[in-house]
């Protein structure tokens, strides 16, 4: 039951280049040592030329010195890049690496594919005018209060009124608004101030606003054309931003916006998820500069929303058994279901939405308030809410014996009967809160087969409410092809896998060509660990039919481990307990302490592994992991009793593989080692990721994780470091420090420093590449240089959060599920026109539509070719320790993702532990800040794969 399940995919091919000195200068010759040649094919001067523009731009170091040997790379040693401390920033700028060739050639099969990219045509002679659009109330707030930020809904109303009042000066169909401060126009607008008055709405006064329009810049499409042709280096982000706003304008007006995605307002009963929740289908899109043209990339999406229905009807659907006649029995559930939701009102004319702050303490019939005479003649009088609605709105309140809703707006609270409130549309429902059936239905709607998804995408591009519908794009001179882009894919050859026979001899496995998987039938792991000291902590013992059958599970598990040559003895202790103990922080601590102490007293060493059996997933899992991994230094393996009781061979195998990897064993290896990195020199692979708290959490730290391989040439054992940092900060603040810790661990284990380092970074967008190159990478180089260590480095970004999908053109181009086969790589047509990137689908897509991983090389000292890097990454995807198949993401990143997720578990456990220890005292300081030591692994686990 270890969290962070399998995600599937791959990449790869090998190539050795020897005898080259200095990088290849794209569009020029090779840079020699004396002519500004700089190792690291990622550095360019400010004009885009390869290498420095002056002798002072870089300092070259050709000497290596270290107290420990450094393994030599296959290519000759070249000078490291060192940034001068007093160098002007523009000369020190590192830019992403250019593509080294015209693409890869390795293949066992060529594929005809369609990608969800739609060519965008425009006239290079066209212009876009960008304006700053500022809106302020005409009258300042009373009593010196700060000006409140206007919601997007009000901004949209003001903009529509401005257009209707000034149609010639401000034509709505010729402009696009980003919802904040920018307006892009297809024609020049008249700058200046405009007054907008929002009409009175019932008992609310009219509001006046001053809209100020100022020209920011004139953007020419020709710059984008020059960039796509390669004649201009810097990407014209201002033009792309403007065009992106233009393509979002029509769906913004017609559809529900949820983050960067758009969903239809047309609800279908077939998408009802029950309990007042419905699935809505939509899309996310973006503009991509490709090697062929500018393209619109659009993908299908599904989200769960609360139905826009009357509040009382929502409660009847959402809460089982809800009845207004017995409201008090459901009060707490109602409060939890409605708090912070937005509602529209039916008893008066208003377009405003109000947020539910809670329920009134009294029921409706007992509520009253003081009414002031508007003319100041009569004395204030006390009026019941029931009479007020009858007199003011001619409305008789039907549900008098239930509370009203407290609606908050601008710091004020209004008491409104529930029957006059409707849930506003477009309010997302967290998928983790869905019940089992609803979650399954939503998943089925999301994981549609490739052909179905392809048709959905094409229909969305053609839809009148979509990015290409309406007049907006047409007025800006944009034409979008209705046909997907055709590309050629190549299938890379999978590597052969090394395992052992039952007698311990080396055995070669050829993986299944279609699914790229293998099995352990009559086969054993390469290196199985002896486990003489282990125990079972059974939380399921009082869970009825979900209770573990230890007499069946334990012998079967021992037999399966032994068949794999993992020597598992009898457990030292079997401790039955209950799930209630798992849910209690104090009892978890007591149980783990007891087992730890018992082992010390009754065995010759500490416990190697504790198997924890649970009847179901539980929040106590987080505290169990934190306490065992940071305080006790105890390795744990969790599993669910319903699965364990089946004693299924595959389930027992997966459990055994996890335990063997955690204890330092080797489950399987590549038969021929990794391509490109032949020879005797060591190489270390690093993966880095940052996990951020949920969108509603505004205080918890983000968790940075760095993992690094600890063995060579098998590259299947990793160590990890976790570090908390400021909330939602993407840069890994202590990246260099974490890498140095892992380097020291590598040296301790191997007695040599790796001469080659390959870094895979996850979780960043293109706008953050500059941060990776000029902050994280520079910090790491500086730290290495301080210890007289100069390895060759390659930095690669692995992206899964993109919209690109690949669809086979015919049956022979796809597998049995209609997906592209494992090992499919695309590096032409839809890739960047000059940067070194490619898409690699390294896993077998059994359900839904496979999503490839997008890899982009930002820095490269190893002079990879497309063939060499693609095969290397693909082969690495066969080394993931938890399963016998190729996975979707290169393992260093996959592991870093698991570790960062574990870090969030640690934080939640720390908060739970603090609350349990001092329930009466405030722990807000711990929520808003963090103690790094609380997240540090126990020294006994620092160099283990505790996270698999």
UniProtKB/TrEMBL annotation:
Domain PAZ: 310-425
Coiled coil (UniProt feature): none
GO biological process: defense response to virus; regulation of translation; regulatory ncRNA-mediated gene silencing
Biased composition (Polar residues): 50-69
Pfam families: ArgoL1, ArgoL2, ArgoN, PAZ, Piwi
Amino acid composition bias (Gly residues), ranges on this chain: 25-45
The protein's name in its UniProt record: PAZ domain-containing protein/Piwi domain-containing protein/DUF1785 domain-containing protein
Organism: Cephalotus follicularis
Taxonomic classification: Eukaryota, Viridiplantae, Streptophyta, Embryophyta, Tracheophyta
């Amino acid at each position: 039951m270890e969290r962070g399940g399998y995600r599937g995919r791959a990449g790869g091919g090998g190539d050795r280049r020897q005898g080259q000195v200095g990088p290849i200068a794209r569009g020029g010759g090779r840079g020699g040592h004396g002519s500004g040649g700089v190792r690291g094919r990622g550095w360019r001067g400010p004009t885009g030329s390869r290498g420095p523009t002056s002798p002072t731009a870089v300092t070259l170091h050709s000497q290596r010195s270290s107290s420990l040997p450094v393994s030599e790379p296959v290519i000759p040693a070249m000078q490291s890049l060192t940034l001068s401390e007093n160098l002007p920033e523009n000369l020190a700028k590192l830019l992403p690496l250019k593509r080294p060739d015209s693409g890869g050639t390795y293949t066992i099969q060529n594929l005809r594919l369609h990608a969800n990219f739609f060519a965008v045509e425009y006239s290079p002679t066209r212009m876009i005018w960008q304006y700053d659009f500022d809106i302020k109330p005409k009258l300042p707030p009373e009593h010196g209060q700060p000006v409140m930020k206007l919601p997007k809904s009000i901004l949209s109303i003001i903009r529509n009124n401005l257009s209707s009042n000034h149609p010639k000066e401000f034509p709505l169909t010729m402009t696009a608004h980003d919802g904040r401060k920018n307006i892009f126009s297809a024609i020049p607008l008249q700058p200046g101030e405009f007054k907008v008055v929002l009409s009175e709405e019932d008992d609310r006064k009219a509001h006046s606003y001053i809209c100020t329009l100022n020209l920011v810049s004139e953007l020419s499409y020709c710059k984008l054309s020059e960039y796509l042709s390669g004649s201009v280096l810097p990407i014209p982000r201002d033009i792309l931003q403007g065009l992106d706003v233009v393509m979002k304008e029509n769906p913004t007006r017609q559809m529900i916006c949820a983050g960067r995605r758009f969903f239809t307002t047309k609800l279908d009963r077939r998408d009802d998820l029950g309990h007042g929740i419905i699935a809505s289908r939509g899309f996310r899109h973006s503009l991509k500069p490709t090697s062929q043209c500018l393209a619109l990339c659009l993908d299908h999406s599904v989200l769960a929303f609360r139905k826009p229905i009357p509040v009382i009807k929502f409660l009847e659907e959402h809460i089982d058994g809800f009845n207004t006649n017995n409201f008090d029995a459901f009060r707490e559930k109602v409060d939890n279901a409605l708090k912070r939701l937005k509602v529209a009102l039916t008893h008066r004319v208003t377009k405003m939405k109000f947020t539910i702050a809670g329920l009134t303490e009294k029921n409706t019939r007992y509520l009253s308030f003081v009414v002031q005479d508007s003319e100041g003649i009569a004395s204030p009088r006390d009026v019941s809410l029931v009479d007020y609605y009858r007199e003011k709105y001619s409305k008789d309140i039907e549900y008098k014996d239930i509370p009203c809703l407290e609606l908050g707006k601008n710091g004020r609270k209004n008491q409104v009967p529930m029957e006059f409130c409707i849930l506003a549309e477009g309010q997302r429902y967290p998928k983790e809160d869905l019940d089992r059936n609803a979650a399954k239905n939503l998943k089925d709607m999301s994981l549609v087969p490739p052909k179905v998804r392809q048709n959905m995408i094409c229909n969305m591009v053609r839809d009148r409410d979509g990015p290409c519908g309406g007049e907006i794009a047409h007025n800006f001179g944009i034409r979008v092809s209705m046909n997907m882009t055709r590309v050629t894919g190549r299938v890379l050859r999978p590597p052969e896998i090394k395992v052992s026979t039952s007698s311990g001899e080396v055995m070669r496995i050829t993986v299944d060509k279609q699914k790229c998987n293998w099995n352990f039938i009559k086969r054993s792991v390469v290196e199985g660990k002896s486990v003489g000291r282990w125990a079972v902590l059974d939380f399921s013992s009082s869970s009825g039919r979900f209770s573990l059958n230890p007499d069946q599970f334990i012998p079967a598990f021992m037999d399966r481990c032994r068949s794999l040559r993992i020597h598992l003895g009898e457990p030292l202790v079997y401790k039955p307990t209950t799930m209630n103990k798992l849910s209690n922080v104090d009892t978890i601590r007591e149980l783990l302490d007891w087992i730890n102490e018992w082992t010390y007293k009754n065995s010759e060493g500490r416990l190697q592994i504790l198997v924890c059996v649970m009847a179901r997933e539980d929040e106590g899992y987080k505290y169990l992991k934190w306490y065992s991994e940071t305080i006790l230094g105890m390795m744990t393996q969790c599993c669910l009793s319903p699965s364990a009781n089946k004693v299924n061979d595959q389930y027992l195998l997966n459990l055994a593989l996890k335990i063997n990897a955690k204890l330092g064993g080797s489950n399987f290896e590549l038969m021929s080692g990794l391509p490109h990195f032949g020879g005797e020199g060591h190489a270390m692979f690093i993966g880095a990721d940052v996990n951020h708290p949920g969108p509603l959490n505004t205080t918890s730290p983000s968790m940075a994780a760095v993992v690094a391989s600890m063995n060579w040439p098998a590259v299947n054992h990793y160590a990890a470091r976790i570090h908390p940092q400021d909330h939602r900060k993407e840069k890994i603040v202590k990246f260099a420090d974490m890498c140095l810790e892992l380097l020291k661990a590598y040296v301790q284990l191997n007695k040599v420093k790796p001469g080659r380092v390959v870094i895979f970074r996850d979780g960043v967008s293109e706008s953050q590449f500059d941060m990776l190159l000029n902050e994280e990478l520079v910090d790491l180089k500086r730290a290495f240089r301080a210890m007289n260590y100069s390895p060759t480095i390659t930095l690669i970004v692995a992206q899964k959060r993109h919209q690109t999908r690949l669809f086979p053109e015919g049956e022979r181009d796809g597998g049995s599920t209609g997906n592209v086969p494992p090992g499919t790589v695309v590096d032409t047509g839809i890739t960047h026109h000059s940067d070194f990137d490619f898409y690699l689908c390294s896993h077998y897509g059994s359900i839904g539509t496979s999503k490839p991983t997008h890899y982009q090389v930002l820095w490269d000292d190893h002079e990879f070719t497309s063939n060499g890097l693609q095969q290397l990454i693909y082969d690495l995807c066969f080394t993931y320790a938890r399963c016998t198949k190729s996975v979707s993401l290169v393992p260093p990143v996959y592991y870093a993702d698991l570790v960062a997720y574990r870090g969030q578990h640690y934080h939640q456990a720390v908060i739970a532990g603090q609350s349990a220890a001092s329930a009466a005292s405030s722990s807000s300081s711990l929520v808003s800040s963090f103690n790094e030591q609380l997240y540090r692994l126990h020294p006994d686990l620092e160099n283990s794969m505790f996270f698999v």
